[in-house]
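Quick bug: FAD-dependent oxidoreductase output formatted oddly.
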Amino acid sequence: MSETYDVVVAGSGAAGLTAALAAATSGARTLVIESAAEIGGTSALGGGRVWLPANGTPENAGDSEELANRYLDQIFDTRYEAMIRTFVREARVMAAFVEKHSPHRFVVCPNYPDYHQDRAGATRGGRCFDVAPVDLRELVPEARAVRQPPGYSPITHAEWEKWRYPDRMDRELLADRMAQGIRTGGLGLVAALLDGVVRAGATVRTSTALLGVLTADGGAVTGVRVRDGDGERIIRASSVVLATGAFDATDELRHRLLPAGLGVSASAPSDTGIALTVAGDLGLPVDNLSEGWWMPMARPEGDLVDGLPYPRGLVRERGVPRQIVVNRQGRRFVDEAAPYNEFGKAMHRLEPGDEAYLIFDEGFRERYPLPGLTPDGPLPGHIVTADSLATLARRIGVDPDGLAATVERWNGFCAEGADHDFQRGANAYDDYYGDPWQEGNRCLGPIDRAPYYAMRVYSGVIGSKGGPVTDPAGRTLTREGPPLPGLYAVGNAAAFWTRDGYPGPGATLAVGMTFGYLAGLHAATR
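Here's what came back:
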C-alpha cells in the first residue's frame, strides 16, 4: 500500500511528539512512527521535568535572557552560540505552544536550584518545571500505550519536596492515583503530548522501525523506509524529523564511542542509534559522539524494560546523611551530593578497572530511600551487608584499612559540621537534596550504626549526545554547509551542542522539545 505524508516523525519521545504537535497543528499531514511496542522512549522513563530559563513566572523573577545566556555560555559549547541563543529565546515560546495545543501543564519548581551554583547567572529555583498530574481516562486511547518505568509512582515533585522519605509518603493517595489512571513524571508528559498530537490529526504507529531516509538525486528528502509487522516498505514524505533518541542502548556503540568504564545505559532499549546510520548513509557530518548525559546508577534485581535489565539513576540518595561513595581503595573521590552529571565525570576519572560503592549504615536504611531497599524487609541481592566495616570491605573487594580510615575521617567531618575534603553540603544544590529536618549541614551524618551496607554504583548514561549536526531550525547540515532539504534531527538523535554541560534539572527535555517545536514548524511549512 502506498502512503504519503507531509511530515514523518521517527520517535515518540518528548522531542518527537513536540515536533509532531507543531507540524500537525500547522496543517501538515503528520505520521509518528515508533520502533518499540510502547510509546514514549526514554522520555516516558524519566522524571518529565523541563528547564525553562527566563520564563516570566513570579517564581523566576529577576531572571532574564541575558542572565540565562551568560550562565549557559559557561557550560555549553560556544561553537554553537546560535543554538544557545535560540534555545533561551524560544524555550518559553515552546512551553506556551504546548500548553495551548495539549492538556500538558507546566508546574514551576520554585526551590529546585540550577546545577552550577558557582557560575554567574545561576538561580536558586524557578527555572525547572514539573508535570501536572494527567488523567488517562480523559485522554485519547493511545495514551494508555505509553511505557511505564520500573518502580513507578505517580508523585509530583512538590509532593516529593514535602514528603521526601518512605515513612512520610501518602501511600494511599499514590495507590488511588495508580488505580484511577492518574499519571505524573515523564509518563504524564508523554501521555499529554500524545493526546495533543492525536487530536491535531496526526497518525501514530508503534512497532514501526525506521530503516533509512530516501532522497532524490538533488538531495531532497522523498520518504522513509520502515519495517513493521508486515515487513519492509516505503512511506513517502517531503520532510522527516529524526527524533529516534540516543545511541547508548547499543552496547557496541556505547563501548566504542563513550568514555571507558561507562557501565550501563538508562536510555530506552529502542535507542540504538539509527540517526547515526542515516547520517552515514547520506554522508552528513556528526559531532559530540563522545559526550552524554551522565548519571550514577544502581542495578536492582528484577527491574526490566522491554524484557531487558534496566538500571535506576541515583539522584536524591546521594545528598542525604549517613552515606559515602568510595573506590576500591576505600577512598572517597567526589562530593557525593554533586549534580549527577558532575558525579559521572568523576567516575570517568577513576583508574581503569576501579569500582565505586555506596557505603551506608542502619541509620540510613531506617530513614532514607534506596532503589529496591526497604527499612525492614528482605535484603535485595544488589545490597551487601556485614556487622563490621572490615567484613563489609572484604565482601565487596574494597581495601579494609582504606575504608576504615575514610569512615573515621568522614565521621570526624560530621562532628565538625563541614566536609574538608569535598565540601559536601556547602552549596545550594547539595543542600537541596540533604535532609531538611536535620539542623546544620543537611548532607552530613556519621556512619556508625551496625549493620553496615554496600551497593555497587555504576557509571551510567541517560542519553548520548552525538548525532547529525543541525542549525537552529533543526535542519541537518551537509558537509558543504547548507541543510539537506527536508531532513531534521532533534533531541538526543541530534548533535547536542551542549558539550559536557548540564545546566539544570530538565535541560535534556527542554532542549529536545524546544528544537522539536522549531523543527516541526519548519517541516510543516517548507
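Actually, after a second look the formatting is fine. Residues 81-101 form the longest helix (21 residues). Closing.
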